[in-house]
Amino acid sequence: MTKTKLTTLAIAIAASLSPVKSFADTDNVSTFEAIEVVGTRPDYKTESVSTATKMDIAPLENPRSVNSIDRKLLDDLQATSLDKALKNDASTVSTYESDGHENFYIRGFQLTTNDGYLRNGEQKYSLIQEPVEMYERIEVLKGPSGLLYGKGSPAGLVNMVTKEPEYQRRTMISQDVGSNNFSRSVVDTTGSATDDLRYRVIASKQSKDNFRHYVNGVHPTTRRDLLAIMLDYDLTDDTMLSLSYDYKTQKGHQDSGAYFDEDGNIIGDRDLILNTPWSTNEKEEESIGVKLTHHFDNDWKLTASYHKLNMVNTAKTSSIRPMKDSAQTGKYEFNTGKRDNSYDVHTGTMDLTGDFNTGSIEHKLLVGTNFVDHEYSRNSLYGGVKQAASTNPATPIYGFDPSKSGKPSSNVYSNFQTGLYVQDLITFNDYWQVLAGARADYYIKYRSKNDKRDGKGEDTEYFNVLPSAAVMFHPSADSTIYASYSQSFVPQTPISSSSDANDGMEREPELGHLYEIGYKQEFMDNSAIFETSLFQIVKENISVTDRKYRDPNNPAITKKTEQGGKQINTGIDTTITGRVTELLTVKAGAQYLIAEYEGQPKYDGKKIADVPQWTANAWANYELTDHIDLNAGVYYIGSRYGNSANDEPKKSAYTLADVGAIYRMPMDSGDELSFRAKINNVFDKEYETSGDYSGMSIGEGRNYMLSAQYEF
């Protein structure tokens, strides 16, 4: 805790604001007592979270496991992407995608690109590296969340809460530089344009070279730009209109990772990208949003919002095809591909929240509805003839030739979802609370453009009712014991294969069930919190195909698909967040997970790919003086298989360590100037993050980042 004395200037200001009888009244001279002003630095602990309940409630009233990574921690980490931020959640494991977009597993289930991300509580399609400089905090909800958000994976959700316009005028300029020609420039300005209108504008430009290189020695570069504009306008004292616009671009390359032969011998070396230098990708995202917030006189609030997101994803690809002796000869093959895809996503939400009593029982009620209208247009070239390549730099590298690809393929896929939900947080007394709700959901997957053209298929509709319930007991004012249940669902299309015995059979949605009990305890005058939970997530109705099946009456039937498979993930996780001593702030966690298949003969007894049994993280910031902080982080990922068959050796467990420092320069003007330095993977550990012999992501070695930030 930082303590500062009230300055002479502040005393003078206080004197000038005090009533004075007259200048001639010299016999009645005012005297001032020295006042000590106590200020507290941020402590990583968020006072309220909204992802799990859509209510701004304290962590002790939230019967779910939610990890919030606040702006202070994002700055201390010098985080530039979700991957850098979510290293500080032990339940989240990052896996690599060849085109550079981020992919995560939460509690052993994969977070889906189109359902797993939220922006301010609304679904957001995420295929770009998210620029965390536009977010105030990132919330990770662990486990099924169908009640409030509808269709989605049992993994959970990542909610990115944007910065907001502020009343006080303030501008922040920062510059980061680092290893591999890393550079990021950010301008963030906010304030009041009029008494009723506030603004915020954030612009950034980032670039970084891959630490790996092509056969010709070139290290490809990824560039990312952002422009975000946010406006808040007070229509009345009780009604606010919010407008937002952001535009993001990302220009990158394809890196499919390291390849190995069946004996585990690497093709080339760890630093070599086998993809061709012309394998590039470009992504462009444009988002427009509007939100209306109205406060009623009786503690009720109505919010209504709408967002439109357009994304274009173009790429030239080279799909690596190793040969049996590639590790010895350095020779391999690749297929040429090309894609021009676009996404048009419309989302909307309307929520009414408020408090009322029934006798001595208190209620906090939420009634709401939301929708997602999603259209995906695909245009691609894949397959075709294989082309020769080599790890030998002397081998010629030919340019992109679309004639080597297969036939062009295109289609348009559309779906629509809407739901109505009700949730009530019921407080019986100081000790007992219940949170209960239900959702009625409607989902339709329309026939694709090609199916309509060919007169095939039909629209598929689903109706679901999803319950959610939790009980909380508060042994004291600063602790909670809870038990909760929640569901998720993912619709499945009918079986469509003429060689399948169940061709045309309608399939039930895949359901996720969360069973969780947990304990939360605040300490250090509520500036820190300890949380732990024991959970089981069951995913059921997984389709299982028996490829040994033969129909004695029809030799064309060579397989049979049925639903009945399960994935059962059972574990325990724990976190500590906040100021644990007067000078030490921490963010730490650990998870132990047993992930198993059931009713899937092909995978029964196997471990789930890229899901470790043990994970742990710890980040600490120590305030050495009023102007200097020292910090460090440790991250552990346990051993794990790279593929579902478990027929390759496990990737080794690894521990990474980071160290850093912060210096805040004293300035009489009231402006703030700070410098940060950080070394990642300080011991230069070699490790692999995800994947298998047919594409394994190589971890980055020791690297550094330096940052300067000026706020005025």
TrEMBL record:
Motif TonB C-terminal box covers 695-712
Q: Alphabetically, which GO biological process terms does the record hold?
A: siderophore transport
Example GO CC term: the record gives: cell outer membrane
Location of this chain's protein in the cell: Cell outer membrane
* Pfam (any one): TonB_dep_Rec_b-barrel
Bilayer disposition of the protein: Multi-pass membrane protein
What the entry lists under SUPFAM superfamilies is as follows:
Porins (SSF56935)
Q: Does the keyword Disulfide bond apply?
A: no
Give the superkingdom in one word. Answer: Bacteria
Q: Which Gene3D superfamilies match?
A: TonB-dependent receptor, beta-barrel domain, TonB-dependent receptor, plug domain
Any idea which UniProt keywords this protein has? Answer: Cell outer membrane, Ion transport, Iron, Iron transport, Membrane, Receptor, Signal, TonB box, Transmembrane, Transmembrane beta strand, Transport
Please state the span of the N-terminal signal peptide per the UniProt entry: 1-24
* Molecular function per GO: siderophore uptake transmembrane transporter activity; signaling receptor activity
Q: Does the keyword Membrane apply?
A: yes
Give the main localization category: membrane
TonB-dependent receptor plug domain mapped to chain residues: 61-156
**Domain spans labelled TonB-dependent receptor-like beta-barrel:** 233-682
Q: Which family does it belong to?
A: Belongs to the TonB-dependent receptor family.
Q: What is this protein called?
A: Outer membrane heme receptor
Q: What is the organism of origin for this protein?
A: Aliivibrio fischeri (strain ATCC 700601 / ES114) (Vibrio fischeri)
